[in-house]
Design goal:
The complex is a heterodimer. Chain A has helices at residues 19-35, 72-84, 97-120, 138-146, and strands spanning 5-13, 39-55, 58-70, 88-95. By secondary structure, chain A is an alpha+beta fold. Chain A has a domain at 5-97: Alpha-Beta Plaits (2-Layer Sandwich), CATH 3.30.70. Classes of the chains: A alpha+beta, B mainly alpha.
Chain lengths: 147, 100
């Protein structure tokens, strides 16, 4: 019934947890995803990072990123499980397919516009509109960006 | 009710006209100011990622407050996405809520 969507999950494991415990947690997440008909796309372990502020009594934590496809039920279950897991001090689960689609569309539109300009024999956008009197350091910046 | 609504919609264009009036902001107009442009539009960044701390950091100076777009020059659309990105990063302790 419910549609599959792309989600990103980041959780921060307490610094007290061993590497083995982190790996175990990862397999648990994988198992839940598999059980509820989801597919793992990618996972990244960022390792131990300093937190920007204290969470509980912790000053650092191990960040793990998981990207997966799945349904709403799956996210509900993951959310619930992570909330009750004591070694996870913080987690964030967000849907990303919509954002990526928008980004992709914007890129495609810009590419199409650039192609159109090229077909007309016009220079790439951003050079024609520059004011002649403006020769501050700002111009250098734009040149770099276009290069 | 209807009257109220009518007057509000009428005040829209007037409100915009206000900015050019500026009874007290006389010297302001003569001051030269470079037109600010949206960083994300010029750099052609489509997706503002909450995981990219380096990209978000310039928008939260010393006090870790999100800088208003009247100062940063970010366009409305990108300010909105930037806002959610910063807030997500804050939740994950990638960025601070406050610094002192």
């Amino acid at each position: 019934m419910s549609q599959k969507r792309l989600y990103e999950l980041i959780y921060i494991v307490s610094p007290d947890a061993t590497e083995q415990a982190v790996a175990e947690l990862h397999t648990q997440v994988e198992a839940i995803v598999a059980r509820l008909q989801g597919e793992m796309v990618r996972t990244e372990n960022w390792g131990r990072r300093r937190l920007a502020y204290r969470i509980g009594k912790h000053r650092e934590g191990t960040y793990v990123l998981e990207v997966f496809n799945g349904t709403g039920e799956l996210t509900k279950e993951l959310d619930r499980r992570l909330k009750v897991t004591d070694s996870v001090i913080r987690h964030l689960l967000v849907r990303v397919d919509e954002d990526l689609k928008v980004a992709e569309r914007d890129r495609a539109r810009r590419q199409a516009e650039a192609d159109k300009r090229a077909a007309k024999g016009l220079p790439p956008l951003g050079q024609g509109r520059r004011r002649s009197g403006d020769d501050s350091g700002d111009d250098d910046d734009t040149d770099q960006a276009e290069a | 009710m209807a009257e109220e609504r009518g007057s509000r919609s009428g005040s829209g264009p007037k409100g915009r006209g206000n900015s050019r009036g500026g009874e007290k902001g006389g010297p302001r107009r003569s001051m030269f100011r470079r037109r600010k442009v949206c960083k994300f539009c010029t750099d052609k960044i489509d997706h503002i990622d909450y995981k990219d701390v380096k990209m978000l950091q310039p928008f939260i100076p010393e006090r870790a407050k999100i800088i208003p777009r009247r100062i940063s020059g970010v366009c409305a659309m990108h300010q909105r996405t930037l806002q959610t990105a910063i807030k997500r990063a804050r939740l994950l302790a990638l960025l601070p809520y406050v610094t002192d």
